[in-house]
Predict the structure.
Amino acid sequence: AHGAVSAEVARAMALGAIDCSLADVAVAVTGVAGPGGGSLEKPVGLVHFACARRGGGVDHVERRYGPLSRAEIRAAAVMQALNMMMDAVDALQRRP
């Protein structure tokens, strides 16, 4: 088992959102925002992102934000997720 904070779970969540909706693009985020809950293997600041496209692949990004506050980690994660979403939508619009 990979646990809730993993690339595999992020990918599964993004694909599940595509499968259960009419969306063409879905982004999923899972991580440890702190202040507690971290471990040596999965420290506070570790966040996995996945962006799935209907009829396409799934991109994964792992970020290790380090010793930031919970609010800073969450804000950085939102920005990463939005950037992935915008890139995916741009790519869909460029399709012939």
Observations:
- The first helix runs from residue 7 to 19.
- The helical segments are 7-19, 70-94.
